[in-house]
Specification:
40% of the residues lie in helices and 19% in strands. The chain contains eight helices and twelve strands.
């Protein structure tokens, strides 16, 4: 009898502990989601405040901040603003002790500005940083063409300017910066199969590695945008056949190859969102324009990260697995 009672008590304790553990996990997940929502809200509020003070569109400020966050190795997702300006540019070449008084910074020809009225231009203060960036842009003029010239003069890199411009287009279109939805690159309502083929050897055109994942599906299976972004390239490629390239808001280029054709009306410069139809699966490539049928129909899906200095391929397979689960949950 004593043993039976002991077992009952242990069972109750175990149930309570299990429930408490699950409650803790759920609470932790909820806190993480609330924290992420709060950081997006704080950023948006600061972008719009700076726009009101400077008349520089908030979505350009958000796009610059997003670009910096994606290219800095030590950037944290918890930072409200991730833009970092060189000390000499901020304080001025003669301000060797980095005095933050805004009047002295101006005297030394520094760019740092006081964005919150405390008479200090602090490079660690998000309000000061955004206000400074906005005023630097404003030196060139208020139009979007002026802003692009300002960006080029600062970054000296065409791809960077184009990426910031496209990210700004996306933010402006959706009036939102918390764009976290994703989708699988082929419609999960059709038959398809895939496994990890990134890094495999390829022979056509010389020895090289496979920079993507092949998703095998029937001809005509719809190909979908996986993320928010802008169409950067469209047309024939010797290796990829009819292909389309999309640059997303995280400095990642998404490459879709071997397509049989494109969705009507889709053009370079178009904004896309997860689930938008881009075209259909085919077997084009490995020859001049129109070459098809040299391999089974499939979608080649590649991902390339831009670091601000260079661009490199990385394995999309783990992301595809995650996005497949998201797509199935939507159904």
């Amino acid at each position: 009898m004593l043993l039976k009672r002991t077992m009952i008590v242990l069972s109750i304790v175990l149930i309570c502990l299990t429930g408490y553990s699950q409650h803790s996990i759920n609470a932790e997940e909820n806190n993480k989601e609330e924290k992420e929502e709060n950081i997006y809200d704080e950023r948006m509020a600061l972008y719009k405040k700076t726009e009101a003070l400077t008349q520089i569109p908030w979505y350009y400020l958000a796009a610059i901040d997003q670009y910096e966050r994606n290219t800095q190795e030590d950037a944290s997702d918890d930072d409200i603003v991730s833009i970092t300006l060189p000390s000499e540019l901020w304080f001025g070449s003669g301000n060797v002790t980095n005095i933050t008084n805004d009047e002295l910074i101006t005297l030394f020809n520094g760019k740092g500005k006081d964005g919150n009225g405390d008479k200090h231009a602090d490079p660690n203060d998000p309000e000061d940083v955004l206000y400074t960036v906005a005023m630097m842009l404003k030196e060139y003029g208020p139009t979007e063409a002026d802003i692009r010239i300002a960006l080029w003069n600062y970054y000296k890199r065409d791809l960077t300017v184009q990426t910031i411009k496209n990210t700004a287009k996306v933010f402006k279109e959706f009036q939102e910066i918390e764009l976290t939805d994703r989708d699988f690159p082929v419609s999960i309502g059709y038959n398809y199969t895939y496994h990890n083929t990134w890094g495999d050897r390829r022979g056509f055109g010389g020895a090289r590695i496979h920079e993507g994942t092949d998703i095998f599906a029937d001809y005509g299976t719809p190909i979908l945008a996986t993320t928010y972004g802008v169409v950067e390239l469209k047309g024939w490629n010797l290796y990829g056949g009819w292909r389309i390239g999309i640059r997303d808001i995280h400095n990642i280029y998404h490459y879709y190859g071997h397509m049989s054709g494109y969705e009507d009306g889709i053009e370079v410069g178009d904004i896309v969102k997860p689930g938008d139809v881009l075209g259909s699966v085919g077997s084009t490539g490995y020859g001049p324009p129109g070459t098809s049928g040299k391999f089974p129909p499939h979608l080649h899906y590649g991902m390339y990260r831009d670091t601000g200095d260079s661009e490199f391929s990385f394995d999309p397979y783990p992301y595809l697995q995650k996005w497949e689960r998201i797509a199935k949950d939507k159904r």
